[in-house]
Design brief:
Pathway: Energy metabolism; oxidative phosphorylation. This protein has 151 residues and is mainly α. Helices cover 60% and strands 0% of the residues. α4 runs antiparallel to α5 and α4 packs parallel to α6. It is elongated and about 100 Å long.
Length: 151
Amino acid sequence: MLKSASGVLANVLKRSLVPAVRVSAVPLRRSHDGPVESDEEFDSRYELFFNRKDIDGWEIRKGMNDLCGMDLVPDPRIIKAALHACRRVNDYALAVRFIEACKDKCGPKVNEIYPYIIQEIKPTLTELGIETPEELGYDKPELALENVYDM
């Protein structure tokens, strides 16, 4: 019993006399110290990606999905390259959906940015035979059509 009491007393004295080492969680900020890519390099990288001759539908969708996940509106150069890639794999629907996604990325400035994009890519659209979502009637809800009984 004396041995047990002396052991407890030794532990109490040790804790009170020797300061405990406290490990505090120091916030450590980890940053990416890699090279910073300029806007021109970014545009060129995606343009080269979509201009690859061996690109397939999955890779086109992957590149478009990556672009749509970023906080930016793709440059018309990138959009043109993506439309040409859609034509190479013969995916008309993907081309129209990408134009819709670019319009959606314009956000509240859609009336300023989207007409500029259409103006820049219009020659490519004409060359490839692709209509805009507005020309296809996708900008109006289906229920906005004229009633067949009123015709």
